[in-house]
Design a protein that fits this description.
The chain is an all-alpha fold and 88 residues long. Helix content is 72%, strand content 0%. It has one domain (13-87). The chain has helices at residues 13-24, 31-64, 71-87.
């Protein structure tokens, strides 16, 4: 069970209107629910960016260490992967 903590925040009028509109439209049952959903989306985006940064760092490290393929070899390997997926 997660412990809830009450926060008081100040938002620009446009953001407050957008939250209220979602609740009034019946998309969410409360202002808090809108905020929680928005924060979950933000946290997921942050998680994906961290993973992307790590993948880029691995790619740069591979390139700097000389672990690279020529364009022709990479294209051929990609074609083989695609052909293998079509057969499966």
């Amino acid at each position: 069970m997660q412990v809830a903590e009450k926060l008081s925040i100040t938002l620009p009028a446009e953001m407050a209107r957008a939250i209220r509109a979602k609740v009034e439209a019946g998309d969410y049952s409360s202002n808090s629910e809108v905020i929680r959903e928005a924060l979950r989306g933000w946290m997921e985006r942050e998680r994906k960016l961290v993973a992307l940064d790590a993948a880029i760092a691995r790619g740069v490290a591979d390139a700097e260490a000389g672990r690279v393929l020529t364009l022709d070899r990479a294209r051929n390997e990609l074609k083989k992967r695609i052909a293998g997926k079509r057969q499966a």
